[in-house]
Structures are given as structure tokens and as C-alpha cells.
Design goal:
The chain is mainly α. The protein has 17 helices and no strands. The protein is globular and about 60 Å long.
């Protein structure tokens, strides 16, 4: 194979991943905002909305566990195609099902993402493919680009959540319009599947099992997974669907206004990713993760007690500009501190506890909302995230990735 061909193949693979991530996050962006509106329109309570969010996150966690075991034995392209098929089925089911028990099952077994972020069965597979395709010197930059594309797509998707209100003058009721958006979500899954099918097959050694995949770096992965779990548990109190619910109930915000807000929130988050990559080259990955995260948590807690909607939105936008700077740096750090053969397993097993932990807190947040304690989920989220940041700094400040040594 020529030198040009060897350079082109990884470029094509990373491009496919970026396009597929954009489509998926575009769908997650409008679904996360529409989900509480849809469930409330069907007659369910805020507590029941919280349980749906918990079921979705818990199901995602269990699917990611399965990916962790299957990823060492099967090609990642095959698993990504299976996940895309599940996304199609999820969108169609949400458009057709009205029974609460069945919706719980669909949320649990499907790909609905109430957080509109990186909690997804797709993520560890994409991380593993991305890490094997790029060199250490550009790893953080590529993860920042990957996160940037996803966040921008999610922001545009959140803006699209206003469509059900915009089409009401045409005589289309809100419930019907939201169902059509779920069908569109399924269509995005089909297009994503076509893109994943273009990723080249990657042959695996027959002895590449989970036991060998998590070898010398096992304890590092376990410690990171435990810390990331605390962060995810905290974030579950303010997943995007529940934050939308808080804005609806606290300030009587309209669906169209919420779509605009989450669009700009996504834009702010998106452009923080290349800043994070630039900053990490100067102060290191761990310092970037910690010292951007703490101010964002303070802004969230201040938003919880903000007296007016403009002040609350300003604080939440400040939080959006800072809170996600740890996303590409965290992904890059995990890939850097484990050996190359362990990367696929490390990507999965640091995602699984995050998903499990994130699954527990939306139901608790829903219960707090139902009891009238609307500010508490935001305060709890910010407090626990600050604790996570301090623990991460203490545990890993001396463990440097190769490019920082």
C-alpha cells in the first residue's frame, strides 16, 4: 500500500465518525428538549418524566456493558451498525407508543438520550476507533474536533425543537408534530448506519479478550471509572431534559424560547472544545479538566437561586461555556494513560459506570421537582461536581500523558 493510501484510510475513517456523530447528536439535541414536553402532553407527571430519563440512562449503561464485552471480540463497525438499527427502532417506537409502561421499556432498551451529550452506547465504540486512527501528538486535538462537531450538531438540533410550535398555525397539533420529530430521529439513525457501513473492517487477534484488554492499566481504569461515576451521578440531576423541565416550571419558558436557549448553550459548549485542546497543551489535561469545571459548577448553583430568567440564562450560558471543556480532555487522557491494546476496553469500562451512575439521579431530581424543591437538583449537581474535581486533581495530577512528560 502506498504512503498516500495509508494516510487517506485513517482520514476517511475519522471523517465518517465525525459525520455520524453529527447526525446522532443532531437527533439527540431536539429529542432531549422535546422528551419532557411530549411526556407531559401524554399526561405524565414530572416524577414519571424523571423515571423515563433514568430508564434511558440505565439502559444505555447496560448496553455499554455489553459493548465492553463484545468490543474485544467483534469488529467495532458491526457493533456501530447494530446500535444504528436500535436508534431506528427507538424513534419509531416513541412515535407510536403511548402506554407509560411500554415507554419505560423502550427508553430502557433503546437509544433515547435525555442528556443530549456523551452518554450513549455509540461513544465508547467511536472513541476506540478514533484513538487507533490518530497519533498521540494530535489525539487531544482530534477528540476536541469530535466533541466540537457533536456539540454544534446538538445545538442545531435543540433549535429544531421549536418546530412543533412553528407548525401549529398550519393546523398541525403539537403532539402530532412531536411524533413526526421522533420519526425523523429514526431516519437519522438509518443515515448514520449507512455512514458506519463505510468504516473499514479491523481484524482482531483471536486472543484479544476482555481479560487481556484490561491488563497493566486495570487499576488506573478502575480509579478513573469511579471518579467519572461521581461526575456522571452529579450530572444526572441536570440532564438536558430535566433542565428544560426546570426552565418550563420555574420561569414558564416557552418551547420555542427553550429551543433557542439550548441552541446557544450548545454553541458555547462546542467552541469551548478547541479552547480546551489549546489550554491543555499549556497547563496539562488534568489541570484543564479541573480548573474549568469548578467555575462552571459555581455558575450552575448560582443559577438555581437566580431571581429572574435573564440572570438564570446568563449563568447557565456561562456554565455551558466551561462545563464541557473536560469532555475532549477526559477522553484523550483515558486513551493516553492506558496501553494501546487496552484502549477499547478502557473506553467502554470508563463509560459504563458513568452511565450507571447517571441513571440513578434523574429519578431523584424528578422527585425533588414533584415535591416543589426545584432548585435542589442544580445545587446538588454543582456541589458533587466540585467534589469530583478536587478528588481527580489529588489522585491524578502526577500521572502525565506521553505528550506532557
Amino acid at each position: 500500500m502506498s504512503a498516500r493510501a495509508t494516510r487517506t484510510a485513517p482520514f476517511k475513517t475519522t471523517t465518517y465518525l465525525l459525520v455520524a456523530r453529527a447526525l446522532r447528536d443532531f437527533g439527540d439535541g431536539f429529542v432531549a428538549v422535546l422528551l419532557p414536553v411530549y411526556l407531559l402532553a401524554l399526561g405524565f407527571s414530572p416524577l414519571e418524566v424523571g423515571f423515563i430519563a433514568t430508564a434511558a440512562l440505565l439502559g444505555s449503561a447496560l448496553l455499554t456493558i455489553a459493548v465492553g464485552f463484545l468490543g474485544a471480540r467483534y469488529d467495532h463497525r458491526q457493533l456501530l451498525l447494530a446500535a444504528a438499527s436500535l436508534m431506528i427502532a427507538t424513534g419509531v417506537a416513541f412515535a407510536l407508543v403511548h402506554d407509560y409502561a411500554l415507554l419505560l421499556v423502550v427508553a430502557f432498551a433503546g437509544t433515547i438520550n435525555p442528556s443530549a451529550g456523551s452518554v450513549s452506547v455509540f461513544v465508547p465504540l467511536e472513541h476506540a476507533v478514533l484513538a487507533r486512527e490518530v497519533a498521540d501528538s494530535i489525539r487531544t486535538k482530534m477528540f476536541a474536533r469530535y466533541s466540537l462537531v457533536g456539540a454544534l450538531a446538538g445545538a442545531v438540533g435543540a433549535l429544531l425543537a421549536a418546530v412543533p410550535d412553528l407548525v401549529s398555525p398550519l393546523g398541525i397539533d403539537q403532539l402530532t408534530a412531536i411524533k413526526a420529530m421522533f420519526v425523523f430521529y429514526a431516519l437519522l439513525g438509518a443515515i448514520g448506519g449507512l455512514i458506519y457501513s463505510q468504516i473499514p473492517l479491523h481484524r482482531r487477534a483471536p486472543d484479544n479478550t476482555i481479560a487481556t484488554a484490561l491488563g497493566p492499566s486495570r487499576h488506573i481504569v478502575y480509579k478513573l471509572a469511579a471518579l467519572f461515576s461521581l461526575d456522571a451521578f452529579a450530572g444526572g440531576f441536570v440532564v438536558q431534559s430535566l433542565l428544560a423541565l426546570w426552565l418550563f416550571e420555574r420561569f414558564d419558558m416557552s418551547l420555542a424560547a427553550a429551543g433557542v436557549f439550548f441552541f446557544w448553550s450548545g454553541v458555547f459548549s462546542a467552541f469551548s472544545f478547541p479552547v480546551a485542546a489549546w489550554l491543555s497543551r499549556r497547563i496539562g489535561l488534568i489541570n484543564t479538566m479541573v480548573f474549568t469545571h469548578i467555575p462552571s459548577s459555581i455558575a450552575l448553583m448560582l443559577a438555581a437561586i437566580a431571581p429572574t430568567l435573564p440572570i438564570a440564562l446568563a449563568l447557565l450560558l456561562l456554565r455551558a461555556a466551561l462545563s464541557q471543556m473536560d469532555v475532549p480532555t477526559r477522553s484523550s487522557y483515558v486513551m493516553a494513560v492506558v496501553t494501546p491494546p487496552e484502549r477499547a476496553a478502557a473506553a467502554s469500562f470508563t463509560s459504563v459506570p458513568r452511565s450507571l451512575a447517571a441513571a440513578a439521579s434523574p429519578a431523584l431530581a424528578g422527585a425533588l421537582f414533584a415535591a416543589g424543591f426545584r432548585a435542589w437538583p442544580l445545587v446538588i449537581c454543582g456541589s458533587l461536581k466540585i467534589l469530583y474535581d478536587l478528588l481527580l486533581l489529588v489522585q491524578f495530577r502526577h500521572m502525565k500523558p506521553p505528550e506532557e512528560r
